[in-house]
Fold this sequence. Notes:
The chain is an alpha/beta fold. The chain is built from 24 helices and 8 strands.
Amino acid sequence: MSCHSEQVVPVSSEDKIKILLMGNPNVGKSVIFSKLTGVHVTSSNYVGTTVDYTYGDVNYKNKKGVIIDVPGTYSLEASSEAERVATSFLEEGADVIICVLDATNLARNLDLALSLREYPIPIVYSLNLIDVAERDGIKIDKDKLEVMLKAPVIPTVAIKNKGLRELLDRAFSLCGQKAETFPKQSEDERWATINEITNEVQSYEYKEPTFIQKLEYLTLKPWPGIPIALLVLILSLGVVVGGGKALRALILLPLVNNVITPFFTRIVSFIVPEGIFRNLLVGEFGILKIGIEWPFALILPYVFLFYVVFSFLEDSGYLPRIGVLADGALKKIGVQGGNIIPMMLGYGCAVPAILGTRAATTYKERIMVATLVSFAIPCASQSGAFFALLGDKSFLALILVYLLSFMTLFTVGIIMDKVIKGKGQPMLLEIPNLLLPDRTSYFKKLKIRMKHFLMDAEGPMFVGIGIAALVAETGVLNSISTMIGPLVEGWLGLPKEASLSLLLGIIRRELAVLPLLELDLSTLQLLVGSVVALFYLPCLAVFGVLTKEFSLKVSLGIGVATITSAFLFAGLINQIGSLILALVG
Ligand SMILES: Nc1nc2c(ncn2[C@@H]2O[C@H](COP(=O)(O)OP(=O)(O)OP(=O)(O)O)[C@@H](O)[C@H]2O)c(=O)[nH]1
Ligand SMILES: [Mg+2]
């Protein structure tokens, strides 16, 4: 997800025309944009992928243009942040609009299509997803539709690049022509027109439902939808946890420990004389030792497999179905089912998750989801660290950590729902078609996510490990440990070396977990350390995005709340746990 809020919106000029790419959410705008401009933007099979605009250049014959991928909107009423972006583009004006219609949902798409005609901008319609419409037995008479819309209609299959040249061709030829503007219609009038059009152009043909169509239906009903969801969850966890462990144990750890680290150690020992500098590089917390082992051998396999599975679920259209099944439970905590997607994105990384809340209709809901994500949803890196730490040593502790995370989501949700003024507005949760993910966009998305992880995570992690090496080698760690000793040793019952976790956890969430690996901890201590890490602090990048999207007050507030909970809960677990152990033992 990219944001360009600070960039200047391109204006049309003599030699460069401005094309707005508009339509309902999840109709294929971003795929069309990527294919036409060569600029990759993320597409996913659910509503609200694009919440900010992106633009890219196109050259057609000897003409130049700029296309803007506008966030999807159902209407021009601007009820969400993403919709406001869309309407502001229309008001600024453009040379031509490409309005993308979902052929499997014509009536609903026509609502926006007709409203757009009230602006003095020529429109060309792309009738997209006709492959899926055909699969479902929906037939649309394109010629009649053109007559009724009084504008060109081009049938397209965006993912297969079908019809896109022609679409661009028509867009350029319309440019400069005077658009016929239509009088503003009331909602009733508009729906009357929509009925008239669909009756005229659309027909159905009965087709024996395919396996995927049956699945579309079955995944939405509590039975067998919920068992299917549980199965998907267990399978996904199996791939991520089991696969990650195997990758780590069989390939990455041996590679790092037997080949890479010895190699660097030998070279450094040869060049750098014994002492603090050598230790910084290859000592206990050496950047060339831990700085490679932690990010690449411990975290990377889990993050990679998480995105392999998650991106697949995303593109198949399965995720919103979980939203439907979980809607009841989510409503109890004051969150509409539609917001489940940003929450699930949070298990990858909190930054896109918080940006994704822009599709939410009310401020209250945005801030609630953002807080829940920052509070108690471990990101992929942090989960990787938990799996690495607890997977081998205490499976029970691992389960307890995630159980606590769920319980916190509910408690915090309920409290916020009561405390924050305003209402969560029912959000339209649109259920997309189940599709076999498009291979090109799937791999591109996976590649981009891994690139982001490597750039966003590895850099700060290196810095963090550098700091660890420095404070360990210079003895600063000892003074810090003495200072916060009462808290760490007394209240939390952890060895004083665990204060390194607290220090590094400020930089990134997984760094609050990983230093515990080096310590010999009891099961109770593992649990306590993990609980501190679970809540502790959202990482620096999350602070940044919270401040930008909301305010400094909000991000500081969330920070104070999480850090207080971290020490409170973890300490309580330690005190109660120790008491029980003393009674039993
Ligand atoms: N089978 C099929 N799938 C398509 C077609 N066009 C797009 N898709 C898929 O439909 C989904 C939605 O595409 P996007 O490009 O993300 O939709 P969008 O309109 O940008 O959605 P928002 O950003 O949410 O407004 C993706 O999973 C695409 O791969 C098509 O013509 N045929
Ligand atoms: Mg999009």
